[in-house]
Design goal:
The protein is built from 18 helices and 17 strands. The protein has about 525 residues and is an alpha+beta fold.
Length: about 525
């Protein structure tokens, strides 16, 4: 949607300025009733630097700046839970590409964690290998991405033959494709199964993509699909200590008609009490869907071996197992968790992708010499951050020190051209780049650190004598000492003091003999400063 086509109230409700949104967490600082009732756009203009569009509002004169490209294309996707956000599959689609990772790699590498959790979000499951075969380990797996959902079965449950089972899962019987706990409201959205022992004959596992099956039903028999989306089914579970009930359709769709949830468990369906005509239609549709779920080619079959931990979406995938000899040893431990925790962890991991890009700069272009100084570019920035930390600077200012010269690697003009006599305006280029990921407490000292050098040369005559030869050269290219008017304007900036502090660390961070912590040392600090929404 173009800004000029957008409803005024929607555009104003999404104003990104610090008066409207907390810059630390992005939350809105106003109520919808705080906006003028007759809100209109008074004027718009392109910003001189080409970075976005300024909107002035009537009647209150508020100003909003929207970056170019905002809000982006509407993909039609929703909250990550519907078929619009998934890759549906049959068994053949996953031949040779079951999503899996080793537990040690998952713990050690955030890129592996991201891929694993992305598979659960997109395909509905992932398989972790080499998970230690010790009781309770499944809780550690769940805690690695979210929170355990405790139920009447406890924090975890043992899937093995029990002498007096309250569920067929605790026998050696064959279990057909189903979802767990349909009698809960809300249903646990994730399930984990960790194999400790599997020496029994039989007991192989299977998964069916319920979204693919429901989509096939919609195509092949739209009337049956419609019946199953509108008919509430009474799911029940009861034992000596528990009585649970939820009335939900077998196939749930969102407001746009997109498949969002499957609840299918023949063991837990209680008696429907509907008019005869509706019962006839439901049971015909129910049977059709049940047959479809067992259609050859839909179910992915595999065997869980000791050390395997399966994580799957319990609102999408149906799981099954073959019968096994109860005399054989088979012991799984299971736990429930929820998709919101996994999605949250995945979003945070995705937010850290810029840190990988920055790390690559430090390891790549940053290894080149720094504008005629004794240190490399990376050494210089790392030293600047270390000096800031040693002086007790706040986290945002340490980050500014670490990243203040990334502008030398971006934009149409490089640091080499700065040395050759063309100002590359790296302070602005770097700040603009960093503003996609960090707030102004990080970016504005970066934007002003060159101006701070010019300012200090104007107000502290002795400062100039402390500059290195290379810094004296670049000062000339960058405009020389400020005039009094320029100095006054600089002092008026709320980030002037931070920029001056950054400048002084910058000037000192040129000793090649000093060893500073590497980029990974600063990752936790940078992670805590990342915007909650990447621009």
């Amino acid at each position: 949607m173009e800004l000029t086509d957008a409803p005024a109230v929607w555009l104003r409700d999404n104003c990104p300025c610090s008066l409207c949104r907390d810059p630390r967490n992005g939350q809105k600082l106003f109520q919808i009733t705080d906006l003028p009732a007759r809100l209109t756009v008074a004027s718009t203009r392109e910003l001189p630097d080409g970075s976005g569009t300024e909107v002035v509002w009537a009647p209150d004169g508020h100003r909003s700046v929207f970056a170019h490209g905002w809000p982006g294309r509407d993909t039609g996707a929703g909250d990550g839970r519907t078929e619009a956000d998934k890759e549906t599959w049959t068994a053949a689609d996953l031949d040779g590409r079951i999503p899996e990772a080793s537990w040690p790699a998952y713990l050690a590498d955030h890129a592996v964690r991201e891929r694993t959790l992305e598979a659960v979000a997109r395909l509905g499951f992932a398989l972790l290998r080499e998970v230690p075969c010790r009781p309770g380990q499944v809780l550690d797996v769940a805690g690695a991405f979210g929170f355990v959902r405790e139920t009447n079965y406890g924090e975890l449950f043992d899937v093995r033959v029990e002498p007096d089972p309250n569920n067929l899962a605790f026998t050696g019987s064959r279990i057909t494709p189903h979802t767990d706990n349909p009698y809960r409201d809300p249903v646990p959205t994730l399930q984990l199964l960790h194999c400790l022992v599997n020496a029994a004959d039989g007991g192989d596992s299977g998964l069916v993509d319920g979204f693919r099956a429901a989509a096939l039903l919609r195509t092949e028999n739209p009337e049956a699909f419609e019946v199953l989306t509108r008919t509430p089914v009474p799911f029940r579970f009861a034992d000596a200590h528990t009585s649970l009930r939820a009335d939900r359709p077998l196939i749930e769709v969102d407001a746009r008609g997109r498949i969002r949830e499957i609840r299918f468990n023949n063991r837990s369906i209680a008696t429907l009490r509907l008019p005869a005509e509706e019962l006839t239609a439901f049971y015909a549709a129910y049977r059709t869907f049940g047959e479809l779920l067992q259609r050859p080619g839909l179910q992915l079959d595999f065997r869980l071996n000791p050390g395997d931990c399966l994580i799957f979406d319990n609102t999408r995938l149906l799981h099954a197992r073959t019968a096994f000899a109860e005399s054989g040893a088979r012991h799984l431990q299971g736990a429930y968790a929820d998709l919101d925790g996994l999605f949250s962890t995945l979003a945070v991991l995705r937010r850290q992708r810029p840190l990988d890009d920055l790390a690559a700069l430090f390891a790549g272009a940053g290894t080149e010499q720094y504008l005629g100084e004794e240190v490399t570019q990376a050494q210089h920035m790392l030293l600047t951050a270390a000096l800031a930390e040693a002086d007790g600077a706040p986290a945002a200012l340490i980050a500014a020190g670490l990243l203040h010269d990334v502008g030398h690697f971006h934009g149409p003009v490089s640091g080499e051209e700065l040395m050759a006599g063309t100002d590359n305006r790296h302070s602005h280029t770097g700040a603009d780049l960093l503003s996609r990921w960090f707030g102004p407490a990080v970016t504005e000292p970066v934007r002003l650190h060159v101006a701070a050098k010019r300012y200090l040369c104007a107000v502290e005559p002795e400062y100039f004598d402390q500059l290195s030869a290379a810094s004296v050269h670049t000062l000339t290219v960058q405009g020389g000492p400020m005039s009094r008017a320029e100095a006054d304007a600089f002092e008026a900036s709320p980030y002037a003091r931070d920029a001056v502090a950054l400048r002084r660390w910058d000037d000192r961070a040129k000793d090649a003999a000093t060893v500073a912590p590497g980029f990974d040392h600063w990752r936790p600090l940078l992670t805590g400063l990342l915007r909650t929404e990447v621009r």
